[in-house]
Amino acid sequence: MATSEKNLSVYEKENLPNAKDMKIGFVVSEWNPDITGNLFQGAFDALIDVGAIKENIVRWNVPGSFELPYGCKKMQESFDMLDVIVAIGNVIQGETKHFDFVCQGLTQGIMELNLKSDIPVIFCVLTDNTKEQSIARSGGIHGNKGAEAAIAAIKMAQLRKDAKFYKSN
Known about the structure:
The chain is of the alpha/beta class and 169 residues long. The chain has helices at 33-49, 68-78, 98-116, 131-136, 145-168, and strands at 24-29, 57-62, 84-92, 121-128, 138-140, 143-144. The chain starts with 23 loop residues before the first strand and ends with a helix.
């Protein structure tokens, strides 16, 4: 597995853009709240660690991971001042094809939002075979995918800002 040799929580703070003035939105699935809560906390802690201000962080909850694209779309429409949005969810393989349909739909939905909107959406959805794998990636032995998503969010927010600068010059 990709994470077996990598700690998802490790980042080089000194090499990151300044997050002080960034406004970051989160849309968090309520399904598997122990996992999604840990992912959010890992992301939040990483953002605060790299200089983000608590008041510049917005969180909305949605019932499940399949609802993440809609929640992110509504957040994009409601908050023009956001620099980036992070979608947090967890889908665990079950005995039916439901897993495949949910994962495919939400992945496609997040990708479409990234192509159609100016506010980037970061995919922080664990799609694991077992609950143990999700635990390992949400603050367990492999670190926290939420922290990794927060760092990606900062980088994409900076890319968005840089692109606007180049477009105006």
